[in-house]
Amino acid sequence: MERLLPLDNARILELGCGGAWTTRQLAERHPSSRFIATEVDRVQHMQNLQLGLSNVEFRLEGAQAISEPDNSFDIGWIYCKSRWIEWPPNLKLQSNLSVS
User: Fold this and answer.
1) What is the per-residue burial (b if ≥16 Cβ within 10 Å, else e) of 8-37?
2) What residues contact 14, with CB distance under 8 A and at least 6 apart?
3) Which end of the chain is more exposed for a tag (fewer CB within 10 A), N or C?
4) What percent of the chain has pLDDT over 90?
5) Alpha carbon distance 28, 30 (integer Å)
6) Are strands 11-15 and 34-39 parallel, antiparallel or unpaired?
């Protein structure tokens, strides 16, 4: 991911972060970036809040209702079984990534 995406000085979203392993690793290596990591499991969310990462905001919310305006993030990802998520009918996924 770090080889393909411009992670420095970025606003980054992880949906369904679980234990936030990816976000933790990237947040430590890219302190100039701001991360928002969401999780729906209340117990896991409370554990994530204890991590103490200054450039990460953990939120208890689902992918269906992100509390940010459209186009608020430079980068975003989700690791989950998307068949469990009811995606809004007007959801638009966009990628400006080209891999050579």
Assistant:
1) eebebbbbbbbebebbbebbeebeebbbbb
2) 20, 22, 23, 35, 36, 37, 38, 76, 77, 78
3) C
4) 47
5) 6
6) parallel
d(CA 100, CA 91): 28
Which sign, positive or negative, has the C-alpha torsion 64, 66, 70, 76? negative
Question: For residue 42, which phi and psi values (nearest 5 degrees)?
Answer: -60, -40
Closest by CA position to 79, among listed 37, 16, 2: 16
Q: Are the C-beta atoms of residues 66 and 77 closer than 8 Å to each other?
A: no
Residues 6+ apart with CB under 8 A from 93: none
Q: Provide the residue type at 52 as one letter.
A: G
Q: Please tell me the total number of residues recorded for the chain in this structure.
A: 100
pLDDT in tens, 75-95: 888 876 555 556 566 655 555
75 strand-pairing partners:
12
